[in-house]
């Protein structure tokens, strides 16, 4: 039997199942998987991959698991490795002949309670007290995996968000093993674009906020206030091929056909903001509001194509990858959205480094003024025609103090920048940001996280007067406190 699981869960489960702890890479010698070195050549390579994974696991806080070694080895398991602060997924097979068991259902999950206090946000008709503090149950999520047959696993993520008032299935699909190195997902999937989306789970991140690459471009987190389900998910099919490249490591290629991002408006970024000072303006927030996973059908006939390739060296904690997206976004099947990006991650026992760069091109008609939007001088809120978006971030963290194998204090700093339309002088989402954080793991599966972010909006001298009169500031900043737990 072959089971395939989401990376952020499989990585933690494998750590508990192998009995690896903070003893370091040498703990591999006592691992129940050490016998794999005696198998055939591919199995030996996979065993070497697991050995490297063991070293990685020793360099990151462990996730205890209810899985036993026996339950893991009772079936052929493809586990997708996720490095802490990375986003890549890798297939590593753990093989043992002659063992079989009845299908089982595995349930795990996580939650977080979140406090946020923004400053410098403009007051709107919808949110007249936009700078008030917020205390919310951000997420309470269950992951469910069920073995359907020898080669099929059904998986879903059920999320309770927005103080328990919204329930969503962030993904729900059948995972089918077609051949030894080829698999497919069919259903509602997490879009495999770069790394943040498939590793959005809180305790696999070092900060609560998403980087701009996973907010204004890849719409992993669509809104900071109303949680409708974290993650860029869509309905479609994804084919996956993974191949060992000897000492180079593992290459993983995926291609997906999905409904794709779209808009029922004449412009792609159609979000507006009605200021309390009177006029309605366009926010030009990028792609964060175009995630269509809750729609019953596509807005056009075209299906978007997403391609992703990743390389995970076998003897290094460094991994890198690239992704490409292309699809028609308008109802007439005429206008393209293209997006591409690269990422790289490096994980050490105490130091982690993570970076992404993403760029997009949008085809769009020029001169469109959305209904109800203020017609300000210089055609400020008319559509620009074809335009580009880009975002990048670099994040560094270091564990400064440790108390035994499960308690530690980490410091984090992230720098990121975004431009959501390169054809306009001012938009409130054209900004740079510095974020500082402290993360304290005071129990094996519970963390307290404090975060402060300071942004600077570009070309603020060109901001329309109503935006400034409503309280919009050139340097908005936010404080966040979160408690995160998982099981």
Could you outline the blueprint of secondary structure elements for this entry?
Layout: E1 2-4, H1 7-17, H2 41-58, H3 69-73, E2 76-80, E3 91-94, E4 105-119, E5 134-147, E6 152-161, E7 166-179, E8 182-190, E9 233-244, E10 250-258, E11 272-274, E12 280-282, E13 304-312, E14 318-328, E15 336-347, E16 351-362, E17 387-403, E18 407-419, E19 431-443, E20 446-457, H4 465-469, E21 477-486
Parallel strand pairs: 1-2
Antiparallel strand pairs: 2-3, 4-5, 4-21, 5-6, 6-7, 7-8, 8-9, 9-10, 10-13, 11-12, 13-14, 14-15, 15-16, 16-17, 17-18, 18-19, 19-20, 20-21
In short:
The chain is mainly beta and 487 residues long.
Note down, in words, how this protein is organized.
The chain is mainly beta. It has one domain: Porin, CATH 2.40.160. The chain is 8% helix and 43% strand. It contains four helices and 21 strands. The strands form three sheets. It has a 16-stranded antiparallel barrel. A hairpin with a 3-residue loop joins strand 17 and strand 18. The longest helix is centred in the N-terminal third of the chain and has 18 residues. The chain is globular, with a radius of gyration of 23 Å.
Classification by helices and strands: mainly beta
Along the chain, the helix and strand elements come as EHHHEEEEEEEEEEEEEEEEEEEHE
Unreliable spans: 1-101
User: How many domains is the backbone divided into?
Assistant: 1
Identify the CATH class.
Mainly Beta
| Morphology call | globular
Largest sheet: 16 strands, antiparallel, barrel
CATH fold group: Porin
